[in-house]
Amino acid sequence: MMDWDDMRVFLALARMESLGRAGQHLRLDPATVGRRIARLEEGLGRRLFTRSHQGYALTDEGARLLPHAVAAENTMAAAAQEAGAGSTGLSGQIRVGAPDGCANYLLPQVVAAICEENPALDVQIIALPRVFNLSRREADMAIGVSAPQTGRLSVQKICDYRLHLAAASSYLDQHPPITKAEDLRQHRIIGYIPDMIFDSELDYLAELGLDRVALGSNSVAVQFNFIRHAAGLGVVHDFALPSAPGLVRILPQVFSLKRSFYLIRHLDDRRVSRLNRFAETLYRGIRKELARLEGAVDGPLPSDAA
């Protein structure tokens, strides 16, 4: 019979696909993680992982075990929550996946406020420019920029958000003026690496017919810092603008994008009270913070170009 410690080691390796990262998460030596997995596989009489130079991947047998391990994890978390029923706060660990724009400029202050109210709660934010696989339990819940159409998922729209072209005022002072969309072709464009756009909702520049990205990154944070350091112009989330007062929106009356955030969860987790409570608090926090940040740049602003 497997015990909870076995499940913890199995889940960590399934999620992180690396002995080193799993060991760091569990505070175990990587070699110990490897021995524990080998012992678990021997006890079950089946291979749970395939090993390669890229890391550890679940076998079919491992994938079948995964939902049972997650169910055990949820049961243990619920038991811990029940044991602390004298306190109404959330506790335990919750992992949230998000695109890095949201993860860098929106989630930190929202999650910090939640944890301030729930001191026994640990929250991990995974900022990756890709879609999260909740079926493999890479995260307890994820924020996406489009609603998935397949899988056993629960999808809730959080809110809309806006994006505009922006540049550093110092960049604009040293380059030709921009009064119409055609003028953009005279400027250095910053954006996503075209073949690394993981969601069509992120193909911002297509609407302007700009097909050359002079400075590209798969990270919104890197793009934002390119723009902040006067390297060129690009599309910026309005909610990120208050963190960089030197940036100026460009042609806000001509070019404006609206996108949406969705809270995505595994359908089975709707039965887990602590995740439901956290999800509701996160939903309300994101809506409130995004309204505050966008309100700070609601315009037209005197500093907007053209």
Automatic annotation (TrEMBL):
Keywords: DNA-binding, Transcription, Transcription regulation. The keyword ATP-binding does not apply. One of its GO terms (molecular function) is DNA-binding transcription factor activity. Pfam families: HTH_1, LysR_substrate. Residues 2-59 form the HTH lysR-type domain. InterPro entries: LysR-type_TF_proteobact-type (IPR058163), LysR_HTH_N (IPR000847), LysR_subst-bd (IPR005119), WH-like_DNA-bd_sf (IPR036388), WH_DNA-bd_sf (IPR036390). One of its GO terms (biological process) is DNA-templated transcription. Belongs to the LysR transcriptional regulatory family. This is LysR family transcriptional regulator. It comes from Roseinatronobacter thiooxidans.
